């Protein structure tokens, strides 16, 4: 029998008595957001909308953005990154598995000193948690040449914005970031910390 989303007892803000709500709804009220699939239009709009709504509700309470994503759309990934950078509340970014491509930039874009990663099982080095910088993908426009060239220009613009953002966050020159992205550089949590993508490792849930 399939298992549905579990429900938990929770006092919804503004209510006097506890009620049964879905687990993810309770986590939403607690400002815990999950980025755990390929980044596309729907996910980008959902995450951006949730963060904007919660920021309007309380500009001081921290966000916790849990990341386990292979990346995805450069355009909608940059939208999430911009929201993370502009909300007034601090954003804790936590990598709980894989943070690749655009998801990796979002991880790096969290509030300084509040970007962490969980270590994976240590039995095999290959299974250590990995974060990857690489060239982001784009949906290719199947149309006239002029439109294809326009999309190429836009893609290059966003790629440069991505490189510039990494450079500002990690304090590494843009040429080095560009080379690392071109090579598809996999990093362990320790390497990601040395690179400037995260601030440390987390071995327990303290939120």
UniProtKB/TrEMBL annotation:
One of its GO terms (molecular function) is ATP-dependent peptidase activity. Gene3D superfamilies: 2-enoyl-CoA Hydratase, Chain A, domain 1. GO terms for cellular component: endopeptidase Clp complex; plastid stroma. The keyword Iron does not apply. The keyword Hydrolase applies. InterPro entries: ClpP, ClpP/crotonase-like_dom_sf, ClpP/TepA. This is ATP-dependent Clp protease proteolytic subunit. Belongs to the peptidase S14 family. GO terms for biological process: protein quality control for misfolded or incompletely synthesized proteins. Keywords: Chloroplast, Hydrolase, Plastid, Protease, Serine protease. It holds the Pfam family CLP_protease. The lineage of its organism: Eukaryota, Viridiplantae, Streptophyta, Embryophyta, Tracheophyta.
